[in-house]
Amino acid sequence: MRLADTAVAHSCAVSSASASAPDADQLTSVTPGEVRTMMLYLRKARERAIAIRDRSPGGSYLESVLTRTIDGISLELSQLDYLLASKPVDPSRNASTMRMRPAI
Questions:
Q1: Residue 36 and residue 30: Cα distance in Å, rounded?
Q2: How far apart are CA 7 and CA 2, in angstroms?
Q3: What is the DSSP string of 35-93?
Q4: Is 28 left (phi over 0), alpha (psi -120 to 50) or beta?
Q5: What CA–CA distance (Å, rounded) separates 52 from 68?
Q6: What is the model's pTM?
Q7: Whole-angstrom Cα distance, residue 36 to residue 7?
Q8: Does 72 score more than 90 pLDDT?
Q9: Which of 1, 43, 66, 78 has the most other CB atoms within 10 Å of its CB?
Q10: In sequence order, what are the residues at sequence separation of 6 or more whose Cβ sits closer than 8 angstroms to the Cβ of residue 49?
């Protein structure tokens, strides 16, 4: 893909997303196996970034960028771990049982 194609696609996606704000609550179904595959990819990317950072000069711009990247990947991994550990939302649950009791 060329850079110009991605810039056009990105601008189209941004303009269509801002035009359809009510449709922003769309759900994507992802299986736990797919999440684990994503986590494996992220772990390998983090390991590669750590290896590159270790070979970069101390205090360089590259080191600071890689440090922020590694921190971001670690945050994403922890969030995905949390999502895998938490129970899925049960849509059949009645919404009234989740409400607070009436005020006095």
A1: 10
A2: 9
A3: HHHHHHHHHHHHHHHHHHHHHSPTT-HHHHHHHHHHHHHHHHHHHHHHHHHSPPP-TTS
A4: beta
A5: 13
A6: 0.59
A7: 30
A8: yes
A9: 66
A10: 66, 69, 70, 73
